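User: Good morning. I'm curious how adenine would be positioned relative to this chain. Could you predict the structure with it bound?
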Amino acid sequence: MNIEACPKIELHLHLEGAAPPHFIRQIAAEKHEDIGGILAANGDYKFSDFRHFLKVYEAATSVLTSPDDFYRLTREVLQHSASQGVIYTEVFLSPDFCGGCDVTAWQEYLAAIEQAAAQSEPEFGIVAKGIVTCIRHFGPDQARKAARCAAETAGDFIVGFGMGGDELQGKQGDFAYGFDMAREAQLHLTTHAGEWGGAESVRQAVFDLKVERIGHGVQVIDDPALIEELVARQITLEVCPGSNVALGVYPTLDAHPVNDLRSAGVKTTISTDDPPFFHTTLGQEYRQLADTFGWTSKDFIALNKTAAEAAFCSAETRQSLLERLEKT
Ligand code: ADE
Ligand code: ZN
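Assistant: Good morning! Here's the predicted structure, ligand included:
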């Protein structure tokens, strides 16, 4: 099977987390900023654990200070995704990193990101939509500001609201106000849960935030009753196996529950999260899943159909994605 050529749908990709280190280095050099502390001698990002990863991520992101930086980043990221066969991607965008959650500044950054996405669609053959994301360890008040940015810009491009960051700080329900605001603005909802916070965090995401999808969600494997609940509610997991192994949630792909979750009937999709940080690509994820679990092209087509069904896009876009997958 030619995994590179197989059309792919990615539902969980952080825009800043997809910035290659060479791109961040270039922008830093243009601004005469020193980012040596976050890079290893070979030029890769350098971190030791999840909390350190978040710090390095924020340090790298801090060199992106203008709408034009985000225009360039979006072009770079979408071109790379398209090279992996990605035809549709949902990208997490953080108003916190785009003018500090000020609505006017956010609108300017978003206009640049949207312009880059619109140009990339015919040029690289990839459709992109945005999910505004609050950062959990910045707290519920800041999350409310991010939700306001999301609500003010909901539409054809901004289709969802979500939460990333340090899952071990606070509870999912602490952020219900922001999620309610986003829901009222007709946005779809997802949150990182069950990456670090156990099955209990997934339970809170389902019952306290009422999300339709869950970022990671893999630790639900420890709670069979909750697995049944996810199946019954048709909640889709945005599983990022390479991210989980790189950050030490699981020691190896062999030990990762993605195959068992699929077998249990949980709607499962595959994404890369922050690919240059984790030395991965979507093509590499597919290849390793094929090697480890024996997944075939039939499995990957089924996974991508699940992703098309769970995408936060319009019915017309979903239909055209399903037709495209039908032809493979
Ligand atoms: N932000 C970027 N990557 C993340 C991850 N894996 N978990 C939580 N927040 C994130
Ligand atoms: Zn993530």
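The CA atoms of residues 246 and 258 lie 15 Å apart. The pocket of zinc ion (ligand 2) is lined by residues 12, 14, 164, 192, 215, 273 (CB under 6 Å).
Let me know if you'd like a different ligand tried.
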